[in-house]
Amino acid sequence: TVASVATAYPYKHDKLVPVGHGIDSRLFSPAQQETPDEPPIILCVGRLSPVKDHPTLIRAAARLRQLTTRPFRVVIIGGPAVAKDEAYIRALQEQIGQLSLRDIIAIEAPVPMGRLPEWYRRCAVHVNMSPIGFGDKVALEAMSCAKPCVVANEGFSDTLGKYKTYLTYEFGNDRQLAERLACILALPAEERSRIGAYLRARVLSLHCIDRLAQRLIALFATLQS
């Protein structure tokens, strides 16, 4: 059995081979010259479904506004996966209005894959709220673009490496997520760039598409012998 990461396969692991994700590191690459948006963007990319836990990000944005005097924006890019997700999106918009965050949070329509790197490069930090068991590639795409990414899924621990504690929060814990984001936004741009460069190197080592192809070829070779 193969899986992208061990935590994506919730069964017996005695015959499991983690092979990583296949991230196109040439497409998802850093900008040649960093020109991040001002105020800084907290970006969240992915389909708009309940499992993605966007309400936690919205609550965290309300807390973050109290934690920092620095201006910031939250941009959520995505669309519904199925018809019933339309009600979920309406609930998110209502939550944004109830917390008086319409001037801070924008929900944008999905964009083609070829345009996603532009958004990753513009942001100061990317957020992925999915729980363990969901190995969202968008988090790795952001890291491949050399951007810090805060995650709730401990399945990213190997990729986060020495920044695991700094960039992981407890699923559903909006207070902890707000604290993580406040710390990252307070960093000098040069330090965020250093974190991003480290994460890109980890993606290249563990999840790039060339490595995935090599792992699969080697695995097939063992099965033939």
Low-confidence stretches: none
Please report the number of helical segments.
Answer: 9
**Which class do the helix and strand fractions yield?**
alpha/beta
Q: Could you give the order of strands across the largest sheet?
A: 5-4-3-6-7
Structural Rg:
18 Å
β-sheet strand percentage: 5-15%
Major sheet summary line: 5 strands, parallel
Strand tally: 7
* Average predicted confidence as pLDDT: 88
Gross morphology: globular
Order of helices and strands: EEEHEHEHEHEHHHHH
Helical percentage: 40-55%
The N- to C-terminal Cα distance equals 17 Å
List the helices and strands and how they pair.
Blueprint: E1 2-3, E2 17-18, E3 41-45, H1 54-67, E4 73-77, H2 85-98, E5 105-108, H3 116-122, E6 125-128, H4 137-144, E7 149-151, H5 157-160, H6 164-167, H7 174-186, H8 189-206, H9 209-224
Helix pairs in contact: 1-7
What characteristics describe this protein?
5-stranded parallel β-sheet; globular; 9 helices; 225 residues; alpha/beta; two-stranded parallel sheet
Summarize the structure.
With 225 residues, this protein is α/β, with parallel strands linked by helices. The chain is 44% helix and 11% strand.
Structure description:
The protein has 225 residues and is of the alpha/beta class. The chain is built from nine helices and seven strands; from the N terminus they run βββαβαβαβαβααααα. The strands form two sheets. The chain has a five-stranded parallel beta sheet, sandwiched between helices. The two termini are 17 Å apart. The mean pLDDT is 88.
